[in-house]
Amino acid sequence: MSLGTRWIFLGRQKQGFFVGKSWYGLGGSCVAGFENLERRVLLSGSDLDPGFGQGGVQKLDYQNLSADSANVVVPLTDGRLLVAGRGSIPGVSPSLKGGIARYNPDGTPDLSFGDRGKVNVGNGPILGVVAQGGGKLLVLWSDAWTNGLSVTRLNADGTPDSSFANSSSTWPGTVVLTAPSVPAIFGSLAGIAALPDDRFLVGGTYGGDLIVRRFAPNGQIDTTFGTNGQATIDLGPLLAVNYTLGTTAIGTDAAGRILLAATGQTGTDWSTPVVALSARLSANGAPDSSFGTNGVSATVPLPKYDVRVNGLAIDKFGRPLATVTKPDVSVVRWTTDGRVDTGFSGDGVATLSIAAVNSQQAMGVTAAGDGGVIVVGSVGGDAAVVRFTPSGMPDAAFGGGDGWLNIDGGGGNDVASAAAELPDGRIVVVGSAVFGGYGDDNVADFLVARLAPNGITDPTWAALSSTLGS
Prior knowledge:
Blueprint: E1 16-19, E2 22-25, E3 57-61, E4 69-75, E5 81-88, E6 96-103, E7 118-121, E8 126-131, E9 137-142, E10 149-154, E11 174-176, E12 190-194, E13 200-206, E14 209-215, E15 230-234, H1 235-239, E16 243-252, E17 258-265, E18 274-281, E19 296-298, E20 309-314, E21 320-324, E22 329-333, E23 349-352, E24 360-367, E25 373-379, E26 382-388, E27 404-407, E28 415-421, E29 427-436, E30 443-451, E31 465-467
Parallel strand pairs: 3-31
Antiparallel strand pairs: 1-2, 3-30, 4-5, 5-6, 6-7, 8-9, 9-10, 10-11, 12-13, 13-14, 14-15, 16-17, 17-18, 18-19, 20-21, 21-22, 22-23, 24-25, 25-26, 26-27, 28-29, 29-30
C-alpha cells in the first residue's frame, strides 16, 4: 500500500475518464485541472484489487444527463450486486424516477435484469431494497407527487410481480402504504427490513411517533403484529420529543428484535437541539423494556439543531449504530441494553474531523465483521469512506494510515450514501458523482466503488463508466 499525499482523481470530459494522471479517452478532447486539497490516497496499480471496474470505481449514467444518485446497495448471495436510487430528469414531470441496477460479481451489468441491467420503479426516490426468496425483490419508494410510500415487488428478472397483494393499477406489483384510505399513515421518512420467513417490516414516522408495520410475504398486512399489524411508539411522554426528523432506519438483530434509528427534536421550533434516537421492539411489536426507557434511548442533545441521524446498522453483538450527519463524520453506538456506549470513543460518539475542511458529513453506516464500523459520506466535496475500530478510534490500517480515504468523482459535491461489507471483507460503496448544475437540474451519475478490506480500491470491476440500458 502506498502512503503519502498522492490521491485519485476521476474527471469527465466528453467520453473519457481520468484515473490518477492517466486519461482513458473514447474520443474528444481533454481539459482538466487538479486542485490542491487535503491529504489523499493514490490508488496505485500495486495497491488495487483487480476485480471491480477500472481503478475499482464506476460512474454509471442511469438516466442520460440527469441527477442520478445511488443510496442503496444490496449484495446478493450469488455474488451479484444491486444498486438503487433515483434519477431526476430536467423537463420531465414528475422529474424523479426510482432506479435499480444489477451487476455481476465482476461489475459488468447483468443484462438479464430488466432493460439490459436496469429497472425503473415508481415516480420518486427509492428508500430501500430487500431480497425475498426465489430472487424476488421488495422496493420501498416515495411518491414524488404526494410523498406517500409504496412497496413494489419485482420478480428475479426485474419485471413487476402482479401477484403481490392489492397491487396498484397505476404501478403493477405495488402496494400503496400511504393513501387517504390507509389509517395511521406514515410520514415520508421510512425504511424497510426483511425477515427470515419472507415477511417484511416498514418503519417510519408520523409527528412525534415511530411507526412499524409488518407484512406477510405477499404484501398483506400481518394483523398478528402489534395492534392490527402496526406498532407505534409515542416519543413525547418518554423523551419529551415533539417531532421526529431525518431518515428513519430499521433493522433486526440476531434475536429477531426490531431496531429503529431517527432524529428527535426536543423543542417546538427549528432552533431547538435534537437528539439521536434508538428504539427496540420485540418480534411481536411490543416495546422492549430491557432496552433504554420502555424501549427507547437517546443521546444527549447534539451540538447543532440541523444535525440529523441518517443511517442504522446492527453489529454482530446486537449493538445499534447510527450516523450523525453534521458537523463532522460521526457515528453513535448504543449498548445492547440501550445505553449510549461509553466504551466507544469514550462518550459513545466516534468522530473523524478533517482539519481545514469545513464540509463534512456522515450518511451511511455498516458494521464490519470484526466489530469495527464503516461510515460513508462526504468530505470537502468528495465521497468519503471512514473506518473506526471496535473501540471507536480511526483505524490506522485503513486508507492512508489515518482511517479514511476519499473518492473524487470528478465534479463538486460528490457523496457516498451507503456501503456494504462482502463476505470476504471487501467493501462496496455507492453514492453520486456530480459534474455540474444544482439540485435536481445537476448532471450526476451513480458512483459505485469496491474496496479491498484495507480501503484500497479494487480495480477488478469491469468498465470504468457505462450507460445502462444502452
